[in-house]
Design a protein that fits this description.
mainly alpha, 2 domains, 2 strands, about 65% helix
Length: about 500
Amino acid sequence: MKIKYIYIFQFSIVFLFASLLNYMNIKSIKKSNPQNIEMNAESLVYNEAIYSIDNYWYLNQIKNYMNGKGFTCDSSNKLYAVRRTPLYPLFYGIHYVIFGEKGSFAAIKISQMMLFAFSAILIFCAVVNFTNNKRIAWWVYFFYGFNLPFISYLSFTLTESVSPSLVCILLFYLSKCKLESGFKNWFLTGLFFSVAVLTRPTIVFFLPVIACCLVFYNRYLIKRIVSGGWAFFVGASLLFTPWIIHNYIKTNGDIVVLEKYYGDQMDYGMPNMYLKYWIACWINPADYSSERISNYSVANIKNKEVVSKSHFIDSLISTIPVNVFKGNTKDEIRYAYGILYDFYKAKETGADLNTFKRLDSMSIDCFVKMKQRYISRAPFQYYVVTPLLVFKSLVFQSNSATLIYLKDYDKNTFLFLIKTTLYLFNIVCCFSFFFILPFYRKYKDLIWITGLFSSSTFFLIYFINKNFETRYIFPFLPCLFITLSILIVETQTAIRKRLNF
C-alpha cells in the first residue's frame, strides 16, 4: 500500500467513525430531551450542534461585527473586545458568513470532524518522526483517532472541539524540527503555536516545551539555539503582533497578549469569584459550583423569594461537605452567604449605587477572611488534601460527561463496559508517564514534552483557574497517548525478549 493511500485510509476511517458517534450522541440527546429544553451538553442548537453555555463567548463576535458593533461578544462594554482570543470566533465566523445562522451549526461539525481526522494523520507522522517506530505511531493513532470523549466535542461550538487537533499539528511541526532544525521548521512551529494559543490560551504552556526542544534539537549549540528561537519568534509574531496591537488600541494602552477580563470573569459579580477562591480551599469548585449558588440565589429573588432568605441559606449549608467545617464554622458561612444573597438582591432590584458597592465590598471581604481562616485552621487540608482531591478528579474519571448515549450505563452491561474502559484508560494514561521514565535516554524529548506540558497545565488548573473540568486536560492528552503507546510497545518488546520470540 503506497504511503498516500495509508493516509487516505487513516483519514477516512476516523472521519466515518466520528460521524457515526456524533450521530448517535445527537440522537441520544433528542431522545432524552425531546422538548429540547436548554441544558448544557444535553440540548441542541437547530437540531445540529450541541448547546453549550459558552456559546455566548464564541458566537456573538461575528454577529456583532456584521452589525457594525465591532468584533466583540458584548458591544455594551468595549473591554469585552479582548475577553476572548480571536481564532475560534473567527473560525465559527467563516461558517456563519458562508452558511448563515442555521447552516453554520451543521457545517462547523463537518469541518471539525475533518480537522480531527487530518490531525490523526499528523500525530501518527509526528510519532514516527519522534521515535522512528511505526508500532508506537499506530497505537497513538488508534488512541487519539478513536477517542470517544474527543469525538463527542466535535459537535460543540467550543475551543475543545479543535484544541486537541491543534496540539497534534504543533507536535507534527515540532517533530519536523527534530529531523531538521532549520529556519523553515522552527518558523512553522512558531506559526502554529500562535494558531493554537490564540484558539485555546492554555496551550501557551507548551512554551517551556519549545524551549527545551530548542536546546535538545540544536545539540546545546548557542548559535543554533538562537537561530531556531528567532525563527520560532518570527513565526509566532505573525499572529500575535496584530492581536496585541488590537488589544492595545481597544484598552487604551494595556498590553494583553492573550485575553483578559477586567474584574468579574463570568458576569456573576466579583463576590462570586471570591466565593470560588474560598471553595477551592477545600474542594474542586467544579464539584461545588459557585455559579450554581449564585444562580439559585438570583432565581429565588426573581421568584419573589418563595423560599425565605434564612431557609434558603440553610439549604445551601446543608449541601456543604463536612471537611469545610475543619476551617470555618456554620455561623461564619451563614453570615457570608447572607451578605452574598443581599448583594444579588441589590443587583436584581436595582438598589442605589452606594448600597450596591457597599454589599459588593462586604461580600468580597467576607470570603477573603473565610479563606484566610480556613488556611490558618486547616493547613494540611489546604496544602495537601485539596490538591490531591483535584488530582484525583483529573485522573480517576472517564472524560465521558458529554457522551449522552452512555447516560444510562448502569442499566446496560455493554455501556457499563465502555464507561469502565474509559475510566481505566484515563488512569493508565495519566500514570504511563511515570512508567516510561526508565526509558529516559531513549525518549528524552517526549518525556520532557509530556512532563512540562501536563504539569504546567495542572499548575494553571489548581493555582490560577482554581477549578478543574474534564475538558481542561484535552490539550495534553495526545502527549499522554504517546507515553502510553511507548509503554505498550516497550513492554511487548521486553516480554518477547524474555520469552525468546
